[in-house]
Specification:
The chain is α+β, with helices and mostly antiparallel strands. Helix content is 44%, strand content 24%. The protein contains 9 helices and 10 strands. It has helices spanning 4-9, 22-27, 29-37, 39-50, 65-73, 91-113, 163-182, 208-217, 229-240; strands at 13-15, 77-81, 84-87, 117-128, 131-143, 146-153, 187-192, 197-198, 204-205, 220-222. Helix 7 (163-182) links the parallel strand 6 (146-153) and strand 7. It is globular and about 55 Å long.
C-alpha cells in the first residue's frame, strides 16, 4: 500500500524534516482536551497572556481564573501579581498555548477516528516548473490511498470584523493543499474555534457565505460547536466519506 510520501511523490512533493512531536502530543492529551472543553474561558485567558496591552488584567472574579489556576498547577503559567498572569514556560510551550493545542487535538482525534498514517505540523517540500517551495500542513492523514488535509485555526470564538476574511483565507489554504498535493482528489477539513452558530437567533449560521464558499471548494468546516471530543470524531469520520 502506498504511503503518504509515495502519494506526495506523484505530485513532485515529499515530507520535509519538520514534523509535530507525536509523543509530546500524547503526553499532553489530558491538558489538550481540557482546553478544548473550556475553549471560551481559555480564550479570555490567552487574550490576557498574549495581548496584555489590550487586556492588562484578569480579575479574580472572572470565570477564566479557574483555567488559569489549572495551568498554574501544571507549571505553564504564573501569577506574580494581583490580576496578572504570565507564561512560565519555553518557546515550545508558548506555541502550544497560542494555538498549537488545536493541531494536537485534531491529530489525536484523527488517530482515534482511525487512520493508516498521520502527521501534524508536517513540512511538505515541493517543486513546480523548477521552483522549489515549502508548506506546513497542520494535519495530513491517509486512509488507503486517500489523503486528507486539515487546517486548524485557533481564533477568538466571538465573531469580529476580521473573522470572515480570515476564515475565507483558511478555506483557500486548505483547498490549495488538496489541489497541489492530491490533484483535488483528497479530503479537506477546516477545524476552528470560531463560534459558527448563533443559538440565540434560532441557531442561525453566523457565516452563511463562508459555508457556501466551503461547499464550492469541497472543504468541510468544523467550528466551536463541534469541538466536543465525540462530536469531533464524528465530524472527522464523516469528512472521509
Amino acid at each position: 500500500m502506498a504511503t503518504i510520501n509515495d502519494l506526495l511523490l506523484a505530485r513532485n512533493a515529499r515530507k520535509g524534516h519538520k514534523t509535530g512531536d507525536k509523543a509530546g502530543a500524547h503526553s499532553r492529551i489530558q491538558l489538550t482536551r481540557y482546553i478544548a472543553r473550556n475553549c471560551k474561558l481559555y480564550d479570555a485567558l490567552t487574550a490576557h497572556l498574549f495581548h496584555p496591552d489590550h487586556h492588562p488584567v484578569l480579575v479574580d472574579t472572572h470565570p477564566a481564573i479557574e483555567v488559569a489556576r489549572h495551568l498554574e498547577r501544571l507549571g505553564w503559567v504564573k501569577n506574580p501579581a494581583p490580576h496578572t498572569w504570565l507564561l512560565a514556560c519555553d518557546d515550545e510551550c508558548r506555541v502550544y498555548l497560542a494555538g498549537g493545542w488545536l493541531e494536537e487535538y485534531s491529530f489525536l482525534a484523527h488517530e482515534a477516528a482511525g487512520v493508516d498514517e498521520i502527521y501534524f505540523g508536517q513540512e511538505i517540500v515541493w517543486s513546480v516548473n523548477g521552483i522549489d517551495g515549502k508548506n506546513e500542513i497542520d494535519v495530513i492523514a491517509r486512509r488507503g490511498d486517500l489523503l486528507s488535509f486539515t487546517s486548524c485555526k485557533a481564533i477568538r470564538p466571538d465573531k469580529s470584523a476580521n473573522h470572515t476574511s480570515e476564515l475565507r483565507d483558511f478555506l483557500t489554504e486548505t483547498s490549495y493543499w488538496n489541489s497541489h498535493f492530491a490533484n483535488g482528489s483528497g479530503r479537506t477539513l477546516l477545524i476552528t474555534t470560531a463560534d459558527m452558530v448563533d443559538e440565540e437567533q434560532g441557531f442561525r449560521q453566523r457565516y452563511p457565505q463562508l459555508l457556501a464558499r466551503a461547499s464550492i471548494l469541497h472543504v468541510d468546516v468544523s467550528g466551536y460547536e463541534e469541538l466536543e471530543w465525540n462530536r469531533l470524531l464524528e465530524t472527522i469520520e464523516n469528512h472521509w466519506d
